[in-house]
Structures are given as C-alpha cells and as structure tokens.
Amino acid sequence: MLDFVVVNDDPAEQPLPELRASDADRERAVLTLGRAAGDGRLDVEELEERLQLAYAARTHSELARLLADVGGAIEGDLAQARAPAPTSRARVGPAGVDGTSWIVSIMGGNQRTGRWRVAERCNVVNFMGGAELDLHDVELSDHVTVVNVYTLMGGFEIRVPDGVDVQISKFAFMGGHEVKLGSEQPPPGAPLIRIRLWTMMGGGEVRRGRKRRDQRSDRALEG
Questions:
Q1: What's the pLDDT at 217?
Q2: Residue 52 φ/ψ, nearest 5 degrees
C-alpha cells in the first residue's frame, strides 16, 4: 500500500511572514528597556545586552520577546504632531566625503559650531568633561544621521535647527536629560537626525534653535 503526501502550493494558504520592525519600533523598544532599567527590572549588563539585540532586531516578535518580562508592548509613537517649520540650513552634502565621526571629551571640553561636516554615524564621548554641539550650519553625510552620546560624570548641550526631523532615545542612571524640540513639523523629505543618549552620573540637554547670546555679557565686552 502506497502513502501519498499532499503538498499545498496555494500561496493564499501559506503562513504570512512576520511583520518587519521599523527604526521607530526599535527606538520605542529602547525607551521601554531604559525605563525598565530605571525601575530596577534590569541590571546594567542585562540592559546593555538587550539594547544591542533591540537595535539588531528585524521583526516585531523579536522586539516583543525583549520586552515581554519588563512591561509588555512597545510604547507609543515617539513623534509629536508638529506645525510646518522653515527650511533648515543643515543640508546633506556630497557622498563619499568623510565627516566627523568621533568627538571625545576627557576631563575637558569640546565645542563645535559654524560650518562642519558630520559623518553618517557620530559618537560623542564625555568622560568627566563635556561637549557643546551646534548643528544649525552642519553638513550631513547622509539623509539619516545617527549621533550617539555617551556621558559619564559629564555633560553636553546639542542645538538642532528647524526644518530637520529629530528623534530622541535616552537612558540615564543617576543623571538626567532635558529635551525641548518644540511643536513644529519638519517639511516633507527633511533630513533625519537620530540622537541616542546614554548618561551615567551626568546630564545634558537637546534643544531646537540657536543659543541666545547673553546681552549683559555683550554690553560688558563693549564697555
């Protein structure tokens, strides 16, 4: 007696592939993990391991497994509704040109203002020091730029221009961040800057708009 195996080749009855995770999904998962660590649900080693897995995740189910024991679902959309904003002076420059990829401040400080080119991925390290970065006139190396800011017992200030989409993810232990981006909507097709903040025993701020000069200091210099 012969046994026959029936193979179903009908695509309509095949299982659907898993839903792919977007960059925004990964950023939301990172926020959830950071808050879980702040609540004491994850230690530093577990947090570091899960952050690496979150940024490498390709599907929603991979992210869901990372969050299942610390709060469940990926948190809501990071972006806020914004009104139209003027075009930014920050622009995407020609491809194939190197930009600044490392800014390291150890027991000292760094200040970057005016016209400068930033690499597609830029790492800012502050150890018992600080960095002040003004991105208003910066030349970007790609339409999407990632700025990783690692701060230990230090501080930083980052100024971002109007007309650029900015996404923030942050984690602080015995420290804090202040983020004030306003409510303006970047124009369609605007460059995207992802700023990822990891801080221990320190702090910093990300603000939209140029830093105002102290008029009293100006008068003192004129005098």
A1: 41
A2: -65, -40
